[in-house]
Amino acid sequence: MSEIQYSKEHAWIKRDADGTAIVGISDFAQEQLGELVYVELPEIGAKVTATEPACIVESSKTADEVIAPVSGEVIAVNNKLDDDPETVNEDPTGEGWIFKIRLSTPVEVGNLIDVDGYNAYIEE
């Protein structure tokens, strides 16, 4: 598995060699939202498009769209989040992953940034 890469919309992906990727929101994003109370998971089979909303996360403070970092088809969702949405707060880049996709346009990964670039971006 490759290193985590980030979008400027605060989503992350971790790609597998088989052309799939796990997607979630960054630690910074979950901190800004506060404790999550609900995650509206995308449907398996749904097509997501880079820079477009893929699903919604809700906290006691607000609801926000998770913007897809890359395009593809949703092939799995983290059903654990139905009962334990706060898992995203506790481990946003691990057990708090949101969905897995099969990449349709792998070249889009070139638009993402590494952890150092992302940390510099959120400090601006």
Write out key terms for the chains shown.
124 residues, alpha+beta, six-stranded antiparallel beta sheet, three-stranded antiparallel beta sheet, 4 helices, 9 strands, globular
Mind explaining what this structure looks like?
The chain is of the alpha+beta class and 124 residues long. The protein has four helices and nine strands, in the order E-E-E-H-E-E-E-E-E-H-H-E-H. It has helices at residues 27-33, 80-83, 87-90, 115-123, and strands at residues 5-6, 11-15, 20-25, 36-40, 47-48, 53-59, 63-67, 72-77, 99-103. Strands 1-2-3-9-8-5 form a six-stranded antiparallel β-sheet. Strands 4-6-7 form a three-stranded antiparallel β-sheet. The longest helix is centred in the C-terminal third of the chain and has 9 residues, at 115-123. It starts with a strand and ends with a helix. The model has no long low-confidence stretch (mean pLDDT 95).
